[in-house]
Structure formats: structure tokens, C-alpha cells
Specification:
By secondary structure, the chain is of the alpha/beta class. The chain is built from 12 helices and 8 strands. Bound molecules: 3-methyl-2-oxobutanoic acid (KIV).
Length: 283
């Protein structure tokens, strides 16, 4: 059965955890879908893990459309959520509807994600237009400078209460799920109990209705820093490095390419050897 927005609510009701992963390209999207994830988030984290930026702020609509199209092509039948990049939804509702709709109309996404709890009216407008919306509260990376860095949120009683209220407003406006990023587990649990739509946590503890992880963190396809909330299940970068060093050594030692890697057929090779042996210029 294909996943729809209804699946999110049904899973919450049945207390079945929802597993979401990011992907940015067709091959990894195919892998995530084959593994059985409930949904794929084409996160604007692409700007950092794929594009090498320090923040998600430089990510453009064109880049996100490219990544979303690639993911949709690679994972046919998957439920794909496109992350709306910075300034694609903050400059007026008409522009936001147009940009969000473009992800569905031109890239084949099934939903969009927007950060922040400041504009539930925008969520209501998008949902009324037929565009499912995933909310995103807590550490919202597009506000990294306003937040004073990538730091945990809702750590005081006042901030926690404000977060619960924002989540309620987003859920009432029609979000089919809300990402809670880097907030204390107890706060995430309060939000999860307070709202009808599922919460999808990242650094928000096990009490959320589901979890989302950045695929590169999980596969070990990254260098250096691993966020505390992430868990590495594989070592793609390290394994890749071993393979690449072996390739370079093989090229230098003539171990690669071998005869089995040549495109000549055996017959062509025999012919070449024969011609060379009757070449009159050969002494
Ligand atoms: O961009 C992203 O990958 C995200 C997730 C971390 C939730 O927003």
C-alpha cells in the first residue's frame, strides 16, 4: 500500500513508529525506498552534506527542484517530501503557494516541509490549495543566525510552553506531521501528546511518533563531525577511501586494468597480434 498523508495519522493512532530518511539523489533514494522507509525527505540539508555549504541558507529553489526530481525518479512509489529552501516561503503567501506547488507540479513531490511556527495561516493556505505540509519546530537551521548557532531549543519552561503552542497551531492549521529538531525529550513528549498529527524527531528522544535522520550521517558518508543525535550504521566514507586507494595503487602498479577489463574481443586481440607479426616494418 503506498504511503499517503493518511498513513501518518493511522500510524500515530496505532502507535507504530514512522521512519523517515533524507535523500538527495536517485540512487540513494532507491536504496532508502527499497529498505522500506515510510517517507523520503529531500532536505535542504542537501546544501551542507551535498553542496558543502556551512549552512542551509544558500540553497535555491532550482537546486531543491533538481534534488527532488532525482529522488522521485529514483524511488518510484515512495512518499517524497520536498524541503522548501530559505526565502522560498517567507516573502508572501502567493509566492509560497507558487513555490510549494512547483515541487508537486514539476518535481513530483507529494508534500513540502516548511520551518518555523510563526505562520500557521500559510500552512492553512497551502493545505487548502491541496499541498500537504510537514512542519518543523525546535532547531530550525534556516534561522541559525537568529538562534545564535546550531543549538538545542525549548530548554526553558517558557520556551517549551511556546513550542507546544506553536505545534498546536501548526497541527490545527493542517500539518500532516511536524519535525521536532533538537529539543529535550520531555518537551517532545508533551508536543506528541498535545497534537493529533505525528511528531517526527531528530535529536528529540524516543517519545516522538517517528524519527528522521540525515542519510549521510547514518551511512557514514561524511567527514568529521557527527551530530550527537545521529547514529552511524555504516562507514561508506571509510570503505570508499580504502577502495579508492586500492584503485590508485592498482593503476600505478599496472594491476588495473587487466585483460578482463579490455573491451577488445578475444578474436580482435588475436587479429591484432597476427597483424603485428606480419607487419613488414617490424624487424
Ligand atoms: O534538511 C533536513 O535534512 C531536515 C531534517 C534534518 C529534518 O530538515
Amino acid at each position: 500500500m503506498p504511503v499517503t498523508v493518511n498513513t501518518f495519522f493511522e500510524k500515530k493512532k496505532r502507535r507504530e513508529k514512522i521512519a523517515v530518511l533524507t535523500a538527495y539523489d536517485a540512487l540513494v533514494a532507491a536504496m532508502v525506498h527499497a529498505a522500506g522507509a515510510d517517507a523520503i525527505l529531500v532536505g535542504d540539508s542537501a546544501g551542507m552534506v551535498f553542496g558543502g555549504h556551512d549552512t542551509t541558507l544558500p540553497v535555491t529553489m532550482d537546486e531543491m527542484l533538481y534534488h527532488t526530481r532525482s529522488v522521485v525518479r529514483g524511488a518510484r512509489g515512495a512518499f517524497v517530501i520536498a524541503d522548501m529552501p530559505f526565502l522560498s516561503y517567507q516573502c508572501g503567501h502567493d509566492e509560497a503557494v507558487h513555490n510549494a506547488g512547483t515541487f508537486l507540479k514539476e518535481a513530483g513531490a507529494h508534500a513540502v516541509k516548511i520551518e518555523g511556527g510563526h505562520d500557521p495561516a500559510l500552512v492553512a493556505r497551502l493545505v487548502a490549495t491541496g499541498i500537504p505540509v510537514m512542519g518543523h519546530l525546535g532547531l530550525t537551521p534556516q534561522s541559525v543566525h537568529a538562534l545564535g548557532g546550531f543549538r538545542a531549543q525549548a530548554k526553558t519552561t517558557t520556551a517549551a510552553a511556546a513550542l507546544v503552542e506553536q505545534a498546536r497551531a501548526l497541527a490545527d492549521a493542517g500539518c500532516f506531521s511536524i519535525v521536532l529538531e533538537c529539543v529535550p525529550s520531555a518537551v517532545a513528549e508533551s508536543v506528541t501528546e498535545a497534537i493529533a498529527c505525528p511528531t517526527i524527531g531528530i535529536g528529540a528522544g524516543a517519545g516522538c511518533d517517528g524519527q528522521v535522520s540525515v542519510i549521510n550521517d547514518l551511512l557514514g558518508l561524511s567527514t568529521g563531525y557527527l551530530p550527537k543525535h545521529a547514529k552511524r550504521y555504516a562507514h561508506f566514507y571509510d570503505d570508499g577511501l580504502i577502495a579508492l586507494r586500492q584503485y590508485i595503487a592498482d593503476v600505478r602498479s599496472l594491476a588495473f586494468p587487466g585483460p578482463e577489463n579490455e573491451v577488445d574481443t578475444t578474436q580482435q586481440r588475436a587479429q591484432k597480434t597476427k597483424s603485428a607479426s606480419v607487419d613488414p616494418s617490424t624487424p
